[in-house]
């Protein structure tokens, strides 16, 4: 596959940003029609198996098609050495299929299914051989990685500052102060998740929810302290957890500030942030104690916009209509979220009630770009 064709392989991932923002997520699995990867590798995931059709691939861009044949929600990862995440897709519900595009240079990797979205997962070796032109060899795409890295660096300083203030309040026993600081610190974390999530075990240590741990593994990070703040109101035992949280965040910041994402990682990251909202966070499963989910929603949307913005020069050349569509959907999503502002923050999730989005229903005018016709006809559904 030529570099030009592989550049176009970015478009399905960005087209799915449109679909996700338009209808609250997609599980239809279409590649979007905006260019095809070198091949499609079927993955049959179940509660006790991860059957990947290929264990050796040529260097280049590939699409994995993951079908969840089990009874548990699953995740799929492609790991490089040290569990560095090359690509991932989460929240694949039983009976559904999801595509994942990934660019792989020659090297040794692992494909991993995580039934129940916990633990080290079911792993298979994957060898990639040969040579292929990298997407980052394209000047505009190389600049996208640099521009996004600048955005990450603009957020990490505040992440350290706000996490430090949060940790100090926890260690001082200032429950109300820590509660006020918690969603602020979380905002900076949620904005940079496309890069923060690629560093092995650091993300689950910082951002794991209760129940994500294997048997015998401790529940740590933001949500461990969140539980203490809102459930018991007693943080007297949280000092070590707070210290470890700050140390882990500092390590992520150190790594993130030095990391330039590849173009396809950026495109996948933009989509993944919206997927998180649409397929998981909309239920209130993440901030289950504090109910500060809308802070996370807004931060994920902002982070997705930043990734798309970094790719804008390439996108405007490759598909200006898609750029206009993405901009329109982001504007609609921001307007929808804006209704739930509360002072400098957001309403709590348990203050919202289910209900249909307001305004006329209108068909998506580019179904060929984003999968099955008609899936884009609903505006983003934020619970009311």
Q: What is the strand and helix layout of this fold?
A:
Elements: H1 3-8, H2 10-23, E1 40-45, E2 50-52, E3 56-58, E4 60-68, E5 74-80, E6 84-92, E7 97-104, E8 107-113, E9 122-129, H3 139-171, H4 175-191, H5 193-196, H6 202-207, H7 222-232, H8 239-257, H9 263-279, H10 293-318, H11 320-338, E10 341-342, E11 345-346, H12 367-370
Parallel strand pairs: 1-4, 3-9
Antiparallel strand pairs: 1-2, 4-7, 5-6, 5-8, 8-9, 10-11
Helix pairs in contact: 2-9, 2-11, 3-4, 3-8, 3-10, 4-7, 4-10, 9-10, 10-11
In CATH, the topology of the largest domain is named A middle domain of Talin 1
What about the largest sheet?
Answer: 5 strands, mixed
Assign the CATH superfamily of the largest domain. M75 peptidase, HXXE motif
Q: How many individual helices?
A: 12
Domain unit count: 2
Spatial strand order of the main sheet: 3-9-8-5-6
Notes on the structure:
The structure is a single chain. The chain has about 375 residues and is α+β, with helices and mostly antiparallel strands. It has two domains: about 35-135, Immunoglobulin-like (Sandwich); about 135-350, M75 peptidase, HXXE motif (A middle domain of Talin 1, Up-down Bundle), CATH 1.20.1420. Helix content is about 45%, strand content about 15%. The protein is built from twelve helices and eleven strands. It has helices spanning about 5-10, 10-25, 140-170, 175-190, 195, 200-205, 220-230, 240-255, 265-280, 295-320, 320-340, 365-370, and strands at about 40-45, 50, 55-60, 60-70, 75-80, 85-90, 95-105, 105-115, 120-130, 340, 345. The strands form three sheets. The chain has a five-stranded mixed β-sheet with strand order 3-9-8-5-6. A four-stranded mixed β-sheet has the order 2-1-4-7. Strands 10-11 form a two-stranded antiparallel sheet. Helix 3 (about 140-170) runs antiparallel to helix 8 (about 240-255) and helix 3 runs antiparallel to helix 10 (about 295-320). The protein is globular and about 55 Å long. It starts with a helix and ends in a 14-residue tail after the last helix.
